[in-house]
Design goal:
The complex is a heterodimer.
Chain A lengths: L3 H25 L11 H18 L6 H18 L7
Helix pairs in contact in A: 1-2, 1-3, 2-3
Chain B lengths: L5 E7 L17 E4 L9 E4 L14 E11 L8 E11 L8 E3 L4 E3 L7 E8 L5 E13 L2 E9 L11 E2 L2 E2 L3 E11 L6 E2 L4 E4 L2 E4 L4 E7 L2 E6 L9 E3 L6 H8 L11 E10 L1 H17 L6 H19 L3 H15 L11
Antiparallel strand pairs in B: 1-20, 2-3, 3-6, 4-5, 4-13, 7-9, 8-9, 9-10, 11-12, 13-20, 14-17, 15-16, 17-18, 18-19
Helix pairs in contact in B: 2-3, 2-4, 3-4
Classes of the chains: A mainly alpha, B alpha+beta.
Chain lengths: 88, 343
């Protein structure tokens, strides 16, 4: 069972992770600015972006079904950002 | 999360404090596009949220304002600032100065090939020392010439400025806005060497310790000896409002109150206009032409870059935001929203 604060925390972590991944991409591809869409960092950014978009549309504690989906999104973001090691 | 086209963040200076703000929810400085120019993007910088009537003893005073573009030229561990707009003069709270910067009005006067190279060393992340050729040239903005430090980045990009590559001048990126108010000195005031003072819009860096003086009102500004028993001298002062020097000088006075000899505002802005245009243009292109959706790749990349830059800027890590903005440049080229297209 997750609380609203967990969702906020996931959103913050996801945004920070996207920023850090994009910085790492930019740092290595400054001249062209481009990487392959299947680049691991780019793929992870896109997935986080998609989860954030979905979280934005869902509300916690309205229905059980929605709660489950939010929890799933939360877990996916957590999995993708765990290497940042800021989760408590 | 609302992503804005221009982000502004005050970073230093007494004028950025809440005590002097008109609207507490906003930053003290305002950066915006000229509302009267619909077809071109002209940036305006103004301390328009500062309540100057709340700042004591501003009559008479002088101001100097700078807008600089900060870029890396490919070196993420080093930032290069170029003054893109500056102004100084007598300050009036009824007529707050507004700086204007039109990237389309900027052209490089000096040919990159004729620039005089000076070698500077840069420490790289891996501990090695890299060498960057650095040159000086001129930029022409309307009728005014600016001396800029122009650099040639290794290995392939030839740049006259951090925001210029060949003939392309980039609007997007990290800007710094500095606005300094000097309370005018009057004859007899003590002045101290290497500090900045003003009189009627004339800003100078004192060459010696002594007493402030002028031959007639605002003319022949000089410093005389303060000690009646000492050797007499009279040193005329030259106007000096060099950006780098003023910036380093004011940064040593962070703790001073708004009552001091000078007071200032230092603000940062991130412009993502071209990037925003490219993202929208990409979506329109896909909506109008695509049947495969493969083109969404660029949309995804640009959107992620924009969010990345936004997050770093909002957290005050301006350098990293700029690095991401620079990486988006090539992908934004020639991508403009065409509302007249037949879709």
């Amino acid at each position: 069972m997750i609380a609203l604060q967990d969702v906020w925390s996931a959103v913050d972590h996801a945004y920070e992770a996207i920023a850090e991944l994009q910085f790492q991409i930019a740092d290595r591809s400054r001249i062209s600015g481009d990487v392959d869409i299947f680049n691991k960092k780019q793929t992870r950014s896109t997935m986080l972006l998609a989860y954030l978009g979905a979280l934005d549309e869902l509300r916690l504690n309205i229905t059980i079904v929605e709660n489950r989906i939010v929890e799933r999104l939360y877990n996916n973001i957590k999995t993708l950002t765990k290497d940042i090691r800021r989760w408590d | 999360m609302e992503i804005k086209n221009i982000l502004v963040k005050d970073s230093n200076g007494q004028l950025a404090e809440d005590a002097y703000k008109l609207d507490l929810s906003k930053d003290a400085a305002g950066v915006y596009f000229d509302p009267e120019e619909l077809n071109t993007r002209i940036l305006k910088f103004s301390p328009n949220n500062v309540n100057f009537d709340a700042v004591p003893n501003l009559n008479p005073s002088s101001y100097v304002a700078f807008a600089t573009y900060n870029g890396t030229l490919g070196y993420s561990n080093r930032m290069f600032s170029t003054v893109v707009s500056q102004d100084s003069g007598t300050f009036s709270s009824n007529n707050v100065p507004i700086l204007t910067y039109n990237p389309n009005g900027v052209s490089s006067v000096t040919d990159a090939a004729t620039l005089q190279d000076v070698v500077i060393e840069i420490s790289m992340f891996n501990g090695t020392i890299d060498v960057l050729n650095y040159s000086e040239g001129y930029l022409n903005v309307g009728n005014k010439d600016y001396v800029v430090e122009s650099r040639r980045a290794f290995p392939t990009v030839v740049s006259n400025m951090p925001n210029v590559e060949y003939k392309q001048v980039y609007l997007d990126g990290w800007y710094s806005y500095t606005f300094v108010l000097f309370r005018d000195s009057v004859p007899g005031n003590p002045v101290f060497k290497d500090n900045y003072y003003s009189r009627g819009g004339f800003i100078f860096k004192a060459s010696v310790d002594g007493l402030f003086g002028e031959d007639s009102l605002g003319v022949g500004i000089h410093i005389t000896n303060a000690d009646p028993a000492g050797t007499e001298f009279k040193e005329y002062q030259v106007e000096n409002n060099d950006y780098e020097s003023i910036l380093f000088w004011i940064s040593g006075y962070t703790g001073e109150t708004g009552q001091a000899n000078h007071t200032y505002l230092h603000s940062q802005a991130l412009v993502t206009d071209t990037l925003r245009d490219a993202i929208v243009a990409e979506a329109i292109d896909i909506a109008c032409d695509s049947t495969t959706g493969i083109e969404f790749m660029d949309w995804q990349k640009l959107s992620a870059k924009r969010i990345g830059a936004y997050v770093f800027f909002e957290n005050g890590i301006f350098e990293k935001a700029q690095v991401i903005m620079e990486s988006a440049r090539t992908m934004c080229l020639n991508k403009k929203v065409d509302l007249a297209r037949n879709c």
